[in-house]
Amino acid sequence: MLFKDLGLSPEVVEAIESIGYSEATPIQEKTIPILMTGKDLTGQAQTGTGKTAAFGIPAIEHVDISINQTQSLILCPTRELALQVSTELKKLAKFKKGLRVLAVYGGESIERQIKDLKFGAHIVVGTPGRIIDHLDRRTLNASHLSQIILDEADEMLNMGFREDIELILTRLPEQRQTVLFSATLAPPILALAKRFQNNPEIIKIERKELTISTVEQFYYLVRNAQKTEIVTQIIDLNNLQLMLIFCNTKRKVEEVTDELKAYGHNPISLHGDKTQRDRTEVMNKFRKGQANILVATDVAARGIDVTGVDAVINYDVPLDIENYVHRIGRTGRAGQLGKSFTLVTNDEKYKLRDIERYTKATIEKAETPTRQELVAYKKDKLATRITTELEKPNIKIWADLLEEYKEKGITAEQIAIALLSKEMKDLAEPERRERTFEDRGDRGGRFERGGDRGGRFERGGDRGDRRDGPRRDGRSSERFGDRPAASRDRDGGERRERTPRPRTSDASMARLFVNVGRIDRISPGDIVGAFAGEANIKGSQIGQIDIFDKYSFVELPHDLVDQVMDGMRNNKIKGKSINIEISNGKQ
Fold first, then answer.
1. Per-residue confidence of the chain (587 residues) as pLDDT tens digits?
2. Treating both helix axes as pointing N-terminal to C-terminal, what angle do 227-237 and 371-390 enclose, rounded to 10 degrees?
3. One domain for residues 353 and 404
4. Kind of pairing, strands 177-182 and 147-150?
5. Would you put residue 160 in left (φ > 0), alpha (ψ -120 to 50) or beta?
C-alpha cells in the first residue's frame, strides 16, 4: 500500500516522499490506520521493519499545532534511540509548520532541556529516567498529553525500567492513547498492556511476511580483495541496468563508489553523512537513470522505493540479519522477478546460514566465472554493440572521417585495432588482473609475485621475513622493499615515522613521489592497479613500491614517467586526488 492511500495529510505525504519513502511496510500498513483512530495498540515487529514511521506518522497527525503544549510522549530505552526517533520525526514533520519535536535524555544539560520545554514541544521523545526528572520538576506539563508510545518496550523492561515506566504511566492523564511496540510479546509485556491499555488491538508481523518470494537469491564465496572485481562480473554477466549495492559503513560506500567509477561504471553514493538536500539529489538522479548504481548503507537506504531495480548486491553481509530482508526487498517488486547477490567471506559462512534460517529460504551458491568465460562474454557483448551501432541511420557520416584518416596514412584496420585496444584493455593483461584480485588474498594488502606468504613488495618474489609484513590488525610497522616505514612503542603508543635509511637506486629507474600512504588505506596493489589501468602500462613494468604513513615512492623506467604522470593527472586512488612528482632524494 502507498502512503498516499493511508488517509494522511498532504504535508505528511509530501515529507514522506521527500525522504524517499513511497510504499508502506507491513507494520506501517497495518498499524497506521488503527492509530489514526486513537485506539490503543500493541505491535510486535522486529527491528528494521519501519516501526518508527509506524507510530511516528500517527503521532504527528495527532498533534494540534494551535495548542503549544506537549501532546505526545515517546519513551525509548536509550538516548541514542531517542535521538534517532526524534530525528526521524522531524523529517516526517518538516512540512507541518510550527510542529516541534524535542528529545530529552540523561547526559545532557537539564537546564537547556528545561528552556526548550518552556518554549514548547508538541512531541517529546525521551528516556524514562530523564522524563521522570522533568515530571518531578514540573518542567514537563502532561496536562494536555493524550498519547503515550513505548518504543522497544521489551528492551526497556530488560534494562530494568519497569518501575520507571509504571510510575510515568500512572502520572499521565487517564484519557489517552497508549501504544506499545515490542520485538516480542513476552508475559511482562502482556502484563503491562493488560494493566495500562484499554482493549488494545494486537498487531503481529510474523517472519514469514518478511520473506521475499519474488527474488532469486545467490551468494559468492570470495576474498575481501576480490569483491569489487566480482561485483563488476555480476553486473556484466547478468546485464544489470539498475541496481543497489549495500555496504555496512559510510567509508566502504565511498570506497566502492570510487572503485566502480575506476571500472567505468556510473555509481552514486548514499549514506548518513549526506545532507537532506544531497540525499534528495542522489535519489532523483537514481530514479531518472542519471546514475544506474546506488551504493548505500542500510540506514540511508531505508524506505527507498524505486521501480525497475534489476538486482541488489550485498557487498557486505549485513550486520543485522533483518536488514538482509530490507535490502533484497528493494528488487522484485510489482510482480517482477528480482535478483540478489551476497558476497560472503569464509569467516562469514555462519551468517549466511543464519540468514537462511531467518528467511526460511535457500540462497544458492554461484560460481565465479572463469577468465575464459569473461573474455567470451565481453567479446560477444562488444560484437552486439558494434552491430547495433552499424544499423543506426546516421552511421554513414563517419565515412568522411575515415577517408580523412586514410589520407594521413592510417588504415581502417589500424583504427579498428586502436579502438579495440581501448575498449578491451582490461582483457589485454590477464596476468595483472589475476595478481591484483586473486593472488593478493586478505592479508592486509600484501602484494608480491613470489607468493602470498612474504611481507614485502618486490618484483623478484622474495619471501622476506614475516616480521617485515603488515599484520592483520595493522598495529605493527610495515616494510615494503628494504626500508622500514614506521615504528610503534612497546606499550602500544602512537606510530612515528623513522628517517629512511639510504638505499642504492637502480640507475635505469626513476623514483616517483605519490601523496598517498598508509593512513589513506593504500596498498601496493592499489597503486599498481591505478598506474596500469589509467596509464596503460604493464604491472610488471612497475618497480619497487615503498609505502609510508602519508606518502609513497614508486619506481618506474624513465621512459614511462611522462606516460604515467599524464595518465594519472586528475585521477584518484581510493577516492583521494593524486599528486605525483619526480623524487630527487636518495631515500
1. 788 888 899 999 999 888 777 788 888 999 999 999 999 999 987 665 778 899 999 999 999 999 999 999 999 988 878 988 999 999 999 999 999 999 999 878 899 999 999 999 999 999 999 999 999 999 999 999 999 999 989 888 878 899 999 999 999 999 999 999 987 888 888 999 999 999 999 998 765 445 567 889 999 999 888 899 899 989 988 889 999 999 988 889 999 999 998 888 899 999 877 776 788 788 888 888 889 999 998 866 655 667 788 999 999 998 777 778 878 888 876 667 889 999 999 878 878 888 887 788 889 999 877 777 777 777 777 787 788 777 877 777 787 788 888 888 888 888 888 877 777 665 554 443 433 333 333 333 333 333 333 333 333 333 333 333 333 333 333 333 333 333 333 223 333 333 333 343 456 788 888 888 888 888 887 888 788 777 778 777 888 888 888 888 898 888 888 888 877 877 788 778 888 888 755 44
2. 50
3. no
4. parallel
5. left
Q: Is residue 378 part of a domain?
A: no
CATH of the domain at 35: 3.40.50.300
**Which string of DSSP letters, residue by residue, matches 272-301?**
TTS-HHHHHHHHHHHHTTSSSEEEE-TTTT
Kindly state whether residues 20 and 57 are assigned to the same domain: yes
C-beta of residue 267 within 8 angstroms of C-beta of residue 217: no
Burial group, residue 180, by CB count within 10 angstroms (0-12, 13-18, 19+): buried
Inter-CA distances, 490 with 346, 369, 449, 466, 497, Å: 33, 46, 32, 19, 15
Q: In this structure, is residue 80 part of a structural domain?
A: yes
Radius of gyration of the chain (CA): 29
Beta strands 545-547 and 552-557, pairing class: antiparallel
Whether 522 and 489 map to the same domain: the answer is: yes
Q: State the angle between helix axes of 10-19 and 51-62 in degrees (0 to 180), rounded to the nearest 10.
A: 150
Q: Which residues contact 392 (CB under 8 A, 6 or more apart)?
A: none
Domain that holds residue 406: 386-427
Report the alpha-carbon distance of residue 564 to residue 544 in Å, rounded. 15
Give the cell for residue 496: 612515528
Instruction: With 0.70 as the threshold, say if the pTM is over it.
Output: no
Name the one residue in this structure whose C-alpha cell is 584493455. Answer: 425
Residue 352, in any domain of the structure: yes
DSSP string, 122-156: SEEEE-HHHHHHHHHHT-S--TT--EEEETTHHHH
Please tell me whether residue 509 adopts helix, strand or coil conformation.
Answer: strand
Q: How many domains does the chain have?
A: 4
Between CA 60 and CA 71 the distance in angstroms is 10
What's the grid cell of residue 195?
494493566
Q: How far is CA 217 from the centre of its chain?
A: 19
Q: What is the DSSP letter of 311?
A: E
Strand partners, 497: 486
Residue given cell 556510473 in the structure block: 266
Shared domain check, 186 and 121: yes
